Amino acid sequence: MARIPTPPADPDDNTGTYVGLDADAAERRARERGWTTVRALPPGAIVTMEYRQGRLNFEVRGGRVTRAWKG
Question: Per residue in 30-61, pLDDT tens?
């Protein structure tokens, strides 16, 4: 049977440092720090609860990040 690959670890990054940043600047910073997927969502957006390795989510209001979380 084939081995199940181990996904790479998430970047060692504090998600709180993105709060307050302009959404475009936050996305650039996240990609520079190694996040493979960056998702910007409006407040109250309905999202699935699956965890995706390497993904950083932003809640964006008025062009600024108000919340950031992994997965």
Answer: 999 999 999 999 999 998 888 888 999 999 99
What does the pLDDT look like over 57-69, one tens digit per residue? 999 999 999 999 9
Tokens at 25, concatenated:
């600047």
**Measured between alpha carbons, how far is 47 from 50 in angstroms, rounded to an integer?**
9
CA 61 to CA 44: how far, in whole Å?
10
Q: What share of the chain is helix, strand, coil (3-state, %, to 5)?
A: 20, 30, 50
Radius of gyration for the chain, computed over Cα atoms and rounded to the nearest angstrom? 13
Strand partners, 57: 39, 69
β-strand partners of 37: 55
**Global pTM value:** 0.85
